[in-house]
Amino acid sequence: MHSSDDLIQETQARANAMAVYAKTKIFYISIWFWLILGVECYSGGSNHVLTIKTGGSVTIPCHYDEKNPPQKKYWHSDITPSNIYTNTTEENLSVIDHPDQSLFTVTMRNLQNKHTGGYSCVVETEGLSTFIYDLHLMVQPAPDVSVVSSSVSGHEGGDVSVQCFYTSGYQNKLKQWCRYKDQSCYTVGRTDTSQNPSVQISDDGRRSFTVLMTGLRLSDSGWYFCSAGEAMNPVHLTVSEAKQVNEATDNQRDSSKELLTVWLPVSAALLLLLILVGVIFTWRWKQRTKQDKHQNRERNDSRTIDAIYSKPEDPVIYNTINDECSNDITYSTIGDAPGSEAKPPAGGTVYSTVAPH
Predict the structure, then answer these.
(1) Which residues contact 187 (CB under 8 A, 6 or more apart)?
(2) Weakest-pLDDT range from 101-105, 171-175, 248-252, 259-263
């Protein structure tokens, strides 16, 4: 039989063993927890690597809970470290709150290699700070992922297209089009019946993939990002109401009407002026034609008269009169040729010649 001391010692040993076992279990659970947390943190960080060209700019959206808006919002930098609160504008940094959209934006300009590092969007509620978005910013001469324009727009019911470029090292990486607000993503080559069929993604397999959004709705407005692997780049989409498009069309029509109202009288006046000039020109041309005809007729008459007066003189017709009572013959002029004056034979005087029989 065991004595009471042995029982006490055995009980203590068991208690110590249980304590050691509990501590060991807690230790391994803690390690497992931190490993999982670390993997999640690493995974989250790897999905938010923002690549920007050297000297370029970027705007980053930071969404917060719209049902429980925080008292403070700020941008945290791991490089400095420093906190920049909302509604702050500096030379190359702006942090602006947009409470109507339940987000604040961070705009960084003239980015250089020294800006490469970790950043966070942080909100503070009742003295408790929460990191709502983490990213790693990489400033590169040739960004791994880029877009032509970080801001696109469309109208309700219309379409919009976004082209996302990637470098050769990301040809075989997963390409996605995601929304910042809820982190919902559309993936190249995958079809999910729960996703919006109006979003289509096509990859050329070389250097870019294209996102086409059709049948736009007002609720589609917001921030999105292109991603290839872990690299990403933000894009802001603005969808305007359809009636605004109609109003713009009406404004164009009104402008056209105003132009028509102004130019119609001017055009009529110019037309009348052209008609008047044409009439005057035609009248002067007819007058000139008549004058030329008259002058030509006068020239022709003058030539006819000259021709008449320039004909050779007709000879004088002489008549022989026989005098039965005498044998003398008398010559005398009795007529002239038409169109010429009578001229006597060679002496220039009228004479009679009496010839002996």
Answers:
(1) 174, 175, 176, 201
(2) 248-252
Q: How far apart are CA 240 and CA 221, in angstroms?
A: 9
Q: Specify the range with the lowest mean pLDDT, choosing from 46-60, 142-156, 292-306.
A: 292-306
Q: Give the helix/strand (H/E) hosting 305.
A: helix 242-309
Burial (CB < 10 A; 0-12, 13-18, 19+), residue 181, is middle
> Is the CB of residue 123 less than 8 Å from the CB of residue 129?
yes
Q: What is the pLDDT of residues 51-102, one digit of tens each?
A: 999 999 999 999 999 899 999 999 999 998 899 999 999 999 999 999 999 9
Q: Collapsing DSSP states into helix, strand and coil, what is residue 319?
A: strand
Structure confidence at residue 298 (pLDDT): 66
- Per the document, the length of the chain is 357
Contacts of 75 (CB under 8 A, 6+ apart): 62, 83, 84, 93, 95, 106, 119, 120, 121, 122
What does the angle CA 33 – CA 36 – CA 39 come to, to the nearest 5 degrees? 150
Question: Phi and psi at residue 46, in whole multiples of 5°?
Answer: -65, -25
Tokens of 146: 């880029």
Angstrom CA distances, 68 to 98, 102, 124, stand at: 15, 10, 11
Q: HSE (CB half, 13 Å, CA atoms) of 12?
A: 6
Query: For residue 213, how many other CB atoms are within 10 A of its CB?
Result: 24
Q: Which whole-number Å values give the CA distances from 355 to 53, 245, 321, in the listed order?
A: 142, 129, 11
Burial state string for 146-164 with b = 16 or more CB within 10 A and e = fewer than 16: bbeebebebbbeeebebeb
Q: How far is CA 76 from CA 106, 126, 129, 140, in A?
A: 10, 19, 11, 21
Q: How far apart are CA 267 and CA 264, in angstroms?
A: 5
Give all strands of the β-sheet with 160-166 in edge-to-edge order: 145-147, 160-166, 208-213, 199-203
- Enter the tokens of residue 199: 């979003």
The amino acid sitting at 92 is N
